[in-house]
Amino acid sequence: MLVEEIMKTSVVTLPPTATIAEALQLLQKHRIRHIPIVNEEYQVIGIVSDRDVRDASPSVFDTNSISEELENEIQTIMSTPVITIHPLDFVEEIARVFYDEEFAALPVVRDNNKLVGIVTEKDMLHTLIQLTGTHTQGSHIEVKVPHRPGILPEVTAVFGKRKTNIISVLVYPFKNDPNYKILVFRIQTMNPLPIINDLRTAGFELMWPNNVPEPKL
Amino acid sequence: MTCKSAFVFAKEFLNYHFNEDHPFNQKRVLMAKELLDEMDYLSESQIIPPRMATEEELALFHDPVYIDAVKKAGNGKLASEDGFEYGLGTEDTPIFPGMHDASSYLVGGTLTAVDEVLTGKSQHALNLGGGLHHGFKRKAAGFCIYNDSAVAIKYIREKYNLKVLYIDTDAHHGDGVQWAFYDDPNVCTFSIHETGRYLFPGTGNVNERGIKEGHGYSFNLPIDAFTEDDSFLQVYETALREITDFFQPDVIVSQNGADAHCLDPLTHLCATMKIYEQIPLLAHELAHQYCDGKWIAVGGGGYDIWRVVPRAWSQVWNVMATGKPATGMLPATWLSRWQQQSPVNLPSYWHDPDDIVPNIPRKTEITEKNAKLLESLLKYTKKRT
């Protein structure tokens, strides 16, 4: 999956000369946490987060009504340089950037640093939810299989024979044992019973809660 | 305590039949009725026939385009690729001849039960043919074509303007009904079910609480796989009492799926007949306490149609009609007649023996986890003082 498929293309931005007060207002109005700062060519030259703005705002305990701090230009507090990504980057790779850099938003740019979109942590999580298939109706089955070529088609043949649609497939390691994998299927049926039986008959090992046999079949 | 109660039934309920191999089998309704007949718990005067829901009534909840597709499908006139969009012709909801009429009878049965209670003819009414809680506005799902409870609650809102508490004890999340009233503060839905982590449909998380005006009026208790009687009843009873007190309903509609039993083949819950005695008792008590007795009950899931469903559903009626569940032995005539058809040995008593529940690992953790869930569920129902 590519960044261009999950990025938001309407991005709230500010010029570097805008005030901190304007940034504060935009953050609240759009309920967002990041504003890319762009120049006249719409190139990304900085980014501010709600935390940057809050740090630059007077304390809530400060009762002097109008505060001058908020009139400062946003470029005085923006982070720069900005780590940006490209529409053709892989979602899996930028997940790595989120993880390593602990950012919560990444501007997406094209030729010469021009802003075309933004991806937030929330968009990433949404994508992960899509990958797990848990957003659609279905039943969930986990199978423990030996880690060897050809195993996946062997298992999925069981689903195909029962004409059951697979919503999603995930493969993850079995504890610390490199010889096994866990296959996680979400299938589009309320009655996974025939498939569970077929998997058992075919000798596959099922995981909790389908590994408790009697009397739950 | 005996209350005036009505039992909605007609042989037409059995026409809702997908195919021989399908786990959803309305023979359950007949078995329950005959069990009650033979115990002399059900008299002719208590039985009322269902009417067929009209298309206008179905359209209180369903999209006319969908109703049209179901009609076509039942006449063999829906191309299979056209059915996909509506969930028709899948393994879960295959197409069968006359499916529109058969489904309309189930909905009509629930509407009949509603009218019976809300016109004051009876205090309680039971339609075991209903409870098809996975039906969506324009999609069949999870063995359900038309969603009788959703249609009936829309009907109650429109015709009688009452506040409805919908209680769903099916082991699967009552998603169709929940989404139908997700933004409606006059309909409170409460579903206890096995967590959607493994089980269809996957939704029903504790944080699904409703939206807009309806926020705070959807309740979900997704209990862990292999939950047993004690933990089930503890969280269920506490939650339901508190939710009912919070919402102050005018009428209760309860869905009585009987698939949380340890013998049920489709779910991983591990209850016994004990919960199917307590569930109607509590609904009955609360209906009298808050709703002047107004209680409509429907059936639902239940896939051990031999050993579990007839007993569980009969107990709903027993509590309705007499105020208490039946005890002791099942009638020998009923047993011998159905034993001939049954692939498994039928139980001889109303209650289950203690050894029916398998020894489940992690019982303590499961109980702990459910209790924690309960706390989170009731976070917004505490009276503001």
Distinctive features:
heterodimer, A: 217 residues, alpha+beta, CBS-domain, Alpha-Beta Plaits, two-stranded antiparallel ribbon, 7 helices, 8 strands, 30% helix, B: 385 residues, alpha/beta, Arginase, Chain A, eight-stranded parallel beta sheet, 38% helix, 10% strand, globular, ACT_dom (chain A), ACT-like_dom_sf (chain A), CBS_dom_sf (chain A)
Walkthrough of the structure:
- The complex is a heterodimer of chains A (217) and B (385).
- By secondary structure, chain A is α+β, with helices and mostly antiparallel strands.
- Chain A folds into 2 domains: 8-87 and 109-117, CBS-domain, CATH 3.10.580.10; 133-206, ACT domain (Alpha-Beta Plaits, 2-Layer Sandwich).
- Chain A has 7 helices and 8 strands, in the order H-H-E-E-H-H-E-E-H-E-H-E-E-H-E.
- In chain A, strands 6-7-5-8 form a 4-stranded antiparallel sheet, covered by helices on one side. In chain A, strands 1-2 form a two-stranded antiparallel ribbon.
- In chain A, a hairpin with a 3-residue loop joins strand 3 and strand 4 (114-120).
- In chain A, helix 2 packs across helix 3.
- Chain A is elongated.
- The two termini of chain A are 39 Å apart.
- The mean pLDDT of chain A is 90.
- With 385 residues, chain B is of the alpha/beta class.
- Chain B has one domain (5-380): 3-Layer(aba) Sandwich (Arginase, Chain A), CATH 3.40.800.
- Chain B contains 12 helices and 8 strands.
- In chain B, helix 7 links the parallel strand 4 and strand 5 (187-194).
- In chain B, helix 9 packs parallel to helix 10 (309-322).
- Chain B starts with a strand and ends in an 8-residue tail after the last helix.
- At the A-B interface, strand 5 of A face loops of B.
